[in-house]
Design brief:
- The protein is an alpha/beta fold.
- Helices cover about 35% and strands about 15% of the residues.
- It has a five-stranded mixed sheet, with helices on both faces.
- Helix 2 runs parallel beside helix 6 and helix 3 packs across helix 4.
């Protein structure tokens, strides 16, 4: 595969500061995804948040997500798309620069302007991708909390493409942890994962089973966890 950004065209600006969302290579890579990238035709697209560990598909959190996804779906039936600090990263290109190379965690950012700009930029990218893939997928599911969820919510106000967002609002409300800095807790909680499982099962007309889902805590692996 030809690199999204050839090595001799890459910026020397660091990828580990709060200016990441404005980084020219990150902007260029996301523009490439929205304009040149050709997504595979699949029954279901599943959006999941980016992780601290790269590549995403090898991270502890994504291995948990994959265990749920592929317990119900065959690889040829689903397309996994990562979103968040990275912008938008289809699973099959998560080893590409700059998605593999940045170190900044959006959740560590306390600059109000950067957080506002992130929500605006990310929601616009999500809306653009949903429009681009309007006829590519039959169903779409987004598994997210915190500011990443806010970005998806805003995107859905910009398009009539349907996305099922989980965990359910009532599940989140029942599991709030006010004593923690991030009150929503980890996405790897059993009740959140059950909503994720149920959404995939519903989209595929499969029964919602009482599956055994281990509680997992990957606090150091998830960008969204620190928002």
């Amino acid at each position: 595969m030809t690199p999204i950004i050839p090595e001799n065209e890459r910026s020397n600006i660091p990828l580990d500061t709060e200016e990441l969302i404005y980084h020219p290579d990150m902007i260029r890579a996301n523009e490439w995804v929205l304009t040149e990238y050709k997504p595979p035709v699949r029954d279901i697209c599943i959006f999941v948040p980016c992780s601290k560990k790269k590549p995403y598909h090898e991270s502890p959190s994504h291995k948990i997500f994959d265990r749920i996804i592929f317990s119900l779906l065959k690889p040829e039936d689903v397309h996994v798309v990562v979103f968040g600090t990275c912008g938008l990263t289809p699973r099959e290109i998560d080893t590409e620069y700059p998605f593999m190379d940045y170190q900044f965690i959006m959740g560590k950012c306390n600059v109000a302007k950067v957080k506002r700009d992130f929500l605006k930029m990310e929601s616009e990218r999500l809306a653009a991708y949903l429009e681009k893939t309007r006829d590519t997928y039959k169903h779409r599911i987004a598994y997210c909390i915190g500011d990443f969820r806010k970005a998806m919510d805003i995107a859905l106000q910009m398009t009539d493409v349907q996305v099922t967002i989980v965990p359910k609002e009532e599940t989140i409300a029942q599991n709030l942890q006010p004593q923690r800095k991030f009150i929503y807790g980890s996405l790897n909680q059993k009740k959140y994962l059950k909503d994720f499982y149920d959404a995939i099962a519903s989209a595929t007309d499969k029964p919602s089973l009482d599956v055994d889902l281990d509680d997992g805590e990957c606090a150091e692996d998830d960008d969204w966890f620190r928002l």
